[in-house]
Design a protein that fits this description.
The chain contains two helices and four strands; from the N terminus they run H-H-E-E-E-E. With 103 residues, the chain is an alpha+beta fold. A hairpin with an 8-residue loop joins strand 3 and strand 4. The termini are far apart. This is Signal peptidase complex catalytic subunit SEC11C.
């Protein structure tokens, strides 16, 4: 399959190759602009996360996409779903708040 790709590239003329590279660059830059736009609109540094474990079933299943916002200025209440980072871990944690402890 890789040899077919290189054969196809050799058969392309320079203009076709230029347009293919330009098209790929536009797709990548569009994806980055959409991602940065989501960061600005949602106020979240990770506007989209993937559920990696089954701990939130049946509400969320493995592989589900969560779209996050960071607009909530009110105190967190029981029943809400929160996403937070733990120092030393790259993957954010998703949990439902069961009980809020007051200090």
């Amino acid at each position: 399959a890789a040899m077919d790709l290189f054969g196809d590239l050799r058969r392309m003329n320079k203009r076709q190759l230029y347009y293919q590279v330009l098209n790929f660059a536009m797709i990548v830059s569009s994806a980055l602009m959409i991602w940065k736009g989501l960061i600005v609109v949602t106020g979240s540094e990770s506007p989209i996360v993937v559920v990696l474990s089954g701990s939130m079933e049946p509400a969320f299943h493995r592989g589900d996409l969560l779209f996050l916002t960071n607009f909530h200025d009110d105190p967190i209440r029981a029943g809400e779903i929160v996403v937070f980072k733990v120092e030393g871990r790259d993957i954010p944690i998703v949990h439902r708040v069961i009980k809020v402890h007051e200090k």
